[in-house]
Design goal:
298 residues, 3-stranded antiparallel beta sheet, 5 strands, 49% helix, globular, binds FE2/S2 (inorganic) cluster
Length: 298
């Protein structure tokens, strides 16, 4: 049937069934359409499992009694060289019952790990991201399985029902912006080395790993569709005032980053997990890694 035939029928309310094979995964496509969604499912699955496992460490769950505070050592931050290299999965550090942030946490929540108090926000930001939605709807929920590939169910109701929570993305974005100065402060802490009472500056491999992490997360967050809209949406004057000119410049930066938002999304996720793994490997005797000081230090 020619395209104009189909268009003519649809304008008269007559639905036209596309010549799609039925049965999950059946298609006339001959290319490797399944490779992308399969690789994405594996990648996201590994990232989710790793962050969940690490997020549950440093807690007093009986099943994790070999790890974390119960085991008497910490894998949240490297302290051995006198500097403080904190894993981004635990920043800002909230230890229930201890310190400034952890103090107000009610005692019945002290079983929670520090990561559990904060990961809800980055997880919410990524979970509602426009790019990730496309990726995991396909990879995990087969909505759709692929273009011109039959999926296991026919219904499609869009982002209604429970999925209206995806509209919270803009608010998660505001919170994600607040994480950038917090993580930048962690980079600053990592260049401050202390012994008994002397203060030195230095740069370790951990500093560089943390710095790359902040830069990657900045690229991901500033290229966010919602951020770009907040900066440039509704503006019809780019030049009238200094503020408008500044907004225009920010909008151009955001647009440039937005063009490769997928890459920022995927690589920044990897680097967050790698940064955490680096801290973990430098603190757990199992790995025997050391955070090498490149310049200065004690
Ligand atoms: S659209 Fe991806 S972070 Fe906002």
């Amino acid at each position: 049937m020619a395209d104009w035939d189909r268009e003519y029928l649809s304008t008269r309310g007559i639905s036209v069934k596309l010549p799609l094979r039925s049965g999950f995964g059946r298609t006339d496509r001959v290319d490797g359409w399944w490779k992308g969604p399969t690789a994405m499912a594996a990648y996201l699955g590994i990232m989710i499992m790793y962050s969940t496992w690490r997020g549950m460490m440093e807690a007093d769950f009986w099943i994790f009694e070999d790890f974390g505070r119960s085991a008497g050592y910490s894998t949240m931050a490297i302290e051995s060289n006198g500097s403080h290299v904190l894993s981004p999965l635990f920043s800002p550090l909230i230890i229930p019952g201890q310190g400034t942030f952890g103090g107000p946490i009610p005692e019945f929540l002290w079983w929670m790990s520090p990561a559990m108090f904060i990961l809800i926000f980055p997880a919410g930001f990524r979970g509602t991201c426009y790019y990730y939605r496309k990726a995991y709807y396909r990879a995990f929920f087969q909505q759709p399985t692929g273009c011109a590939v039959s999926k296991p169910w026919n219904e499609y109701s869009g982002e209604t029902g429970l999925l209206v929570v995806q509209n919270l993305h803009r608010y998660f974005m505001y919170i994600a912006l607040a994480y950038l100065p917090i993580l930048s402060y962690d980079v600053w802490l990592s260049v401050n080395f202390h012994d008994a009472d002397v203060h030195h500056y230095g740069i370790s491999v951990g500093t560089i790993v943390l710095l790359i992490n902040v830069l990657m997360l900045t690229g991901y967050t500033v290229g966010c569709h919602a951020f770009r809209h907040v900066i440039g949406g509704g503006s019809n004057d780019w030049t009238g005032t200094p503020m408008n000119r500044m907004k225009y410049r920010m909008w151009k930066v955001s647009t440039k980053l937005n063009e490769s938002h997928k890459e920022w999304a995927l690589y920044s996720l990897f680097w967050v997990m790698f940064t955490d793994f680096y801290v973990y490997a430098c603190t757990d005797p199992l790995f025997g890694w050391n955070d090498i000081v490149i310049w200065g230090g004690i």
